[in-house]
Amino acid sequence: MKRLSMILAFLTIGLTAAVAQEDAKVETAGGAEMTFETEVIDYGTINQNADGVRTFKFTNTGNQPLIISNARGSCGCTVPTWPKKPINPGESGEIKVKYATNRLGPINKSVTVTSNATEGTIVLRIKGNVIEKQTSPEKEASEMAPVAQ
Q: Does residue 26 have a pLDDT over 50?
C-alpha cells in the first residue's frame, strides 16, 4: 500500500510538471521576428577602393518590438551599423555593412547580429572579389606597328 501511494505521488508530480512546462511554452510563444530579404550579399567583382557599403533589409514579422543589441563583423575590415531604436511589428529596418575595398582578393566575411528575436543570433554574409583598378586601357601592340630603335 505504501508503495502504491509513492508511485501515485510521483505520477502526480510528473504530470503537474509536464502541464506547467506546456503552459510556460504557450505564454512565451511569439515575440520579435527578424525576416531578411537576403542573408547573403554578393559584391560580385568590384574595383579596389570602390564603394564598399551594402545594405541588408529586414522586417519585424513578429508581434513584439525588435531590439538589436549588437552587430559584429568577422574582422576589422567589415563594419556594420544598425538601428538603435526598437523596430515595431510590421516595420522595416536596415543593417549597413561597409567592407574595406582597399584590400585585393576574395571577400568572404560575416556579420553576427544579436537581438531579442526568437532566433537570438543571425549570421549575415558578404562575398565577392576585389580586383586592382585599371587606370588606363592597355593597348596591344600591332604586328605592323613601327618599332622604336
A: no
